Predict the 3D structure of the following.
Amino acid sequence: MHAAQARTASLALEPQARASVRRLARANSTPEDRDRILTMWAALHAESRYADFTTFSPKKVRATLEALLASPRGIVLLGDPPRGFMWGGCAAYAFADESYSTNAALYVEPATRGSFLAVSLIRAYERAARAQGVSEILIDVNSGVSTERTARLYERLGYRAIGGLFSKRA
């Protein structure tokens, strides 16, 4: 796809992307928000390739969520109503003074996919990451869930593939 086509495809998504998203922090998140994210994480795990070889740990998810909510570099977003979430964080490159942001999860409930909630979550994530002064935003698709569809969405939003993620079970 040429750059002009990519811009046009990207812009076509924007006027319709009206799903509401809240950025959570320790001060503004409720126990219900946290429980809802935990429930969606369990659903993501069950649907993903990871269910074949890992055991879902609610305790670990909750600890990670609490750490992200407490960190000024953490980004936790929840759809409103809560039918999807995205989380990740910002860090300095190991080789440079600049920083980047990478997501650890993006999940939209199956019945809500195609509703522009994913677009709204990604755009909110980008705003939060840019507010941290990052040079680059990295998002991935490695769960094995709707891989091609998700990659096409990322490309329509202006992302480009920069390599590959390879897996080999130990």
Remarks:
- The chain has one domain: 3-156.
- The longest helix spans residues 31-47.
